[in-house]
Write a structure and sequence with these properties.
Elements lengths: L3 H16 L1 H25 L1
Helix pairs in contact: 1-2
Length: 46
């Protein structure tokens, strides 16, 4: 039913997020900023 590899992967991700939440937040902010920048540039370009 449940793939053990998926569970292990989720466990690893949760473990990484728990320990490196700051890194995760920084990456999320960078992605958000780049997406907003691209959206603004696209809006200005048209």
């Amino acid at each position: 039913m449940h793939n053990p590899d998926t569970g292990r992967l989720l466990e690893r991700i949760l473990h990484a997020v728990r320990h490196d939440w700051l890194y995760f937040v920084v990456v999320a902010e960078l992605v958000l900023i780049s997406a907003l920048t691209g959206w603004l540039l696209a809006g200005v370009g048209t």
